[in-house]
Sequence to fold (118 residues):
Amino acid sequence: MQRKEIEEELVAEAKRLKARLVRFTQEPDPPQEIVPQVNGQVEGDLLDAASREAAVYQEEVLQRFLRTKGIALEEARQRLQAGSYGICQGCGEPIPEKRLKAVPYAAFCFPCQEQREK
Fold:
């Protein structure tokens, strides 16, 4: 893959991530109170409350993931501009093209990435 194609792909993916994050900020905030109360009495089904809480948690996790991926994409663009894109930051060997096609923001070859995750 050519440098220009790689950069275009990284930029396009970053734009998609930003659009998804914007959608999160445009949606109304989740209720502050997970279990609604009226006159001190719990109202509604606790299972519904647990479902709402789980949904809020899932959204928070997804937002964190999208932000982290956005940072990784920007770092990949910086490596591309510096001439170190496609070189493993762990062992210094080239990252296989197949891995870069699957994960264009990869900073580590698969063995080094596995080692980091242990």
